[in-house]
Amino acid sequence: MNIYISGLSYNINDADLNELFAEYGEVSSARVINDRETGKSRGFGFVEMTNDQDGQKAIEELNGAEYDSKVISVSIARPKTERPSSGGGNRNRGNSGGPRRNSGSGRY
After folding, report:
1. Cα separation of 86 and 28, whole Å?
2. Least confident residue range of 25-29, 74-78, 103-107
3. Helix, coil or strand: residue 22
4. CB-based contacts of 34: which residues, under 8 Å, 6+ apart?
5. In 3D, which of 104, 103, 2 has the Cα closest to residue 51?
6. Hey, is 15 helix, strand or coil?
7. Global pTM?
């Protein structure tokens, strides 16, 4: 079961998250998400638990609990949705993107 945790203290690391959830069952992975630019925690993370019943118990008991002086939210992680590719989505609309010019010839 993949679990999403938000509201984490910025001091929490992967090992802390693993330790917290290991009290409820076997943790296959625990990861705090860090900012790409700064490398600092973004305040949320994911835990993968091998047993769904253990994961559900962890969600029920930890959702709304205080951890490292912050109230955390714990829920089943939603599947990742695909994002549109970069480029703004305005490609191939019949406009080359260049400036429009009027030649002023008056011909139609």
Report:
1. 33
2. 103-107
3. helix
4. 40, 41, 42
5. 2
6. helix
7. 0.73
